[in-house]
Design goal:
The structure holds two protein chains of two kinds. Chain A is an all-beta fold. Helix content of chain A is about 0%, strand content about 50%. Chain A contains no helices and eleven strands. In chain A, the strands form two sheets. In chain A, strands 2, 4, 5, 6, 9, 10 and 11 form a seven-stranded mixed β-sheet that branches. Chain A has a four-stranded antiparallel β-sheet with strand order 1-3-8-7, with no helix packed on it. Chain B starts with a strand and ends with a strand. In chain B, strands 2, 4, 5, 9, 10 and 11 form a six-stranded mixed β-sheet that branches. Chain B has a five-stranded antiparallel β-sheet with strand order 1-3-8-7-6, with no helix packed on it. Chain B is globular and about 45 Å long. By secondary structure, chain B is an all-beta fold. Chain B is built from no helices and eleven strands. Classes of the chains: A mainly beta, B mainly beta.
C-alpha cells in the first residue's frame, strides 16, 4: 500500500513553462519535505512544512515554491524551469518519527 | 568539507563476499544515524538505523563511533539483489527533523 504518492512519475516541460508536482500521504505525518536529486548526487533538501509552517532552505532558488493546503497534500511549483532544474524530485514525510518516508519521485525533464 | 562523506565506489564484489562501507560526518551535534538504500531511478528506502552499541539486521551490521564521527555498514554473504547505492544519512538535533545525506556508495554484486 503506497503511503507517499507522487504524481506524475514523469514530467516533461518546456524551458520557462511553469510546472507543478504533487505529493500526498496517508501516514498523517506532520512534516512534509521536498528534495531535489540530480544524477550521482545526494538528495538536496529544498524546503519543508512543519504542519502549516513553511521552512525554506537558504540556498533554494526563488524559482521553487511550495504549497500545503492540508495535512495530506503538498505541491512543488517551479515557476520558470531551466535546463539545470532537470532532476528527480522526491517528496518525503516525517516529523515526530525519527526517520523519513519517501515517495517514488517525479523525474522532471526540461526541453 | 561535506557534512556527510562517503566513498562513491563502485564496489564490485562477487556474490557471497563480505563488503564494508564507511561514512564520516562533520557535525558533532548529529543525533541520529541511518543507512538508506537507493536502487537505480528509485526513491531512497530506510535500510536500518544505526545505534551507538552497534546493531545487526540479518546479513547487515551497522556501527557508530561518535568519538571519531564515523559510521559503517557491513554486508555479509552479499546477494545479487544487494546491488544498489547505499546512502549514509545523519539527523541533526533541531526543528523539522532534517536529514543530511551522503552522496552514496554504489555496490555491484556479480556472479
Amino acid at each position: 500500500d503506497a503511503m507517499v504518492i507522487q504524481n506524475p512519475r514523469y514530467q516533461v516541460t518546456q524551458f520557462g513553462k511553469p510546472v507543478t508536482l504533487s505529493c500526498s500521504q496517508t501516514l498523517n505525518h506532520n512534516v512534509m519535505y521536498w528534495y531535489q536529486q540530480k544524477s550521482s548526487q545526494a538528495p538536496k533538501l529544498l524546503f519543508h512544512y512543519y504542519d502549516k509552517d513553511f521552512n525554506n532552505e537558504a540556498d533554494t532558488p526563488d524559482n521553487f515554491q511550495s504549497r500545503r493546503p492540508n495535512t495530506s497534500f503538498c505541491f512543488l511549483d517551479i515557476r520558470s524551469p531551466g535546463l539545470g532544474d532537470a532532476a528527480m524530485y522526491l517528496c518525503a514525510t516525517g516529523g515526530d518519527v525519527e526517520t523519513q518516508y519517501f515517495g517514488p519521485g517525479t523525474r522532471l525533464l526540461v526541453l | 568539507r561535506k557534512e556527510v562523506e562517503q566513498d562513491p565506489g563502485p564496489f564490485n564484489v562477487p556474490e557471497g563476499a563480505t563488503v564494508a562501507f564507511n561514512c564520516t560526518y562533520s557535525n558533532s551535534a548529529s543525533q541520529s544515524f541511518f543507512w538508506y538504500r537507493q536502487d537505480c531511478r528509485k526513491e531512497p528506502k530506510l535500510l536500518m538505523s544505526v545505534y551507538s552499541s552497534g546493531n545487526e539486521d540479518g546479513r547487515f551490521t551497522a556501527q557508530l563511533n561518535r568519538a571519531s564521527q564515523y559510521i559503517s555498514l557491513l554486508i555479509r554473504d552479499s546477494k545479487l539483489s544487494d546491488s544498489a547505492t547505499y546512502l549514509c544519512v545523519v539527523r541533526i538535533a533541531g526543528g523539522g527533523n532534517k536529514l543530511t545525506f551522503g552522496t552514496g556508495t554504489q555496490l555491484k554484486v556479480e556472479l
